[in-house]
Write a structure and sequence with these properties.
This protein has 145 residues and is an alpha+beta fold. The chain has a domain of 71 residues. It contains four helices and five strands. A three-stranded antiparallel β-sheet has the order 1-5-2, with no helix packed on it. Strands 3-4 form a two-stranded antiparallel ribbon. The longest helix has 15 residues. The relative contact order is 0.19. This is Conopressin/conophysin.
Amino acid sequence: MRTALIFSLFFIFAFCAPVDEGSGDGSGEGSGEGSGEDEFGPGGIPRKCVTTRMCYNDDDCFGGQCVGGFVGKCNCNGCINLARCEDDSMCGGLVGACDTKGFVKAGMSSYGAALYLFCNIQNCSRTTYTEDCFGLACTAGNCIC
């Protein structure tokens, strides 16, 4: 049983964790033809599918699929209810959360309502997560090409 647990943890960390956006073959170079505007998007991210690149939807994978658990949904795991904190950053960035009323300030009737109606349900993206998730992180996945 212990071996299965260790193997499972290794598998999760080795194959399921997103990698940096700029990962790939490391060359950062195209074929040398053209201006390169078609090859790279904003921020120098290649416009081609790179396996295990961090993504928030299929569009981030340029022809591949973005896979993972709750990809493109607001992640409430950074904010533990009733945990002691000194500022909102200690609660995953949820605005107004340090007084344990962050979800209520965000329009939820209670913490339970947030878990049922918001956490891992609200859609978000790389560019809009601060507004969509009230400061919490947006769950990323991995590209599969």
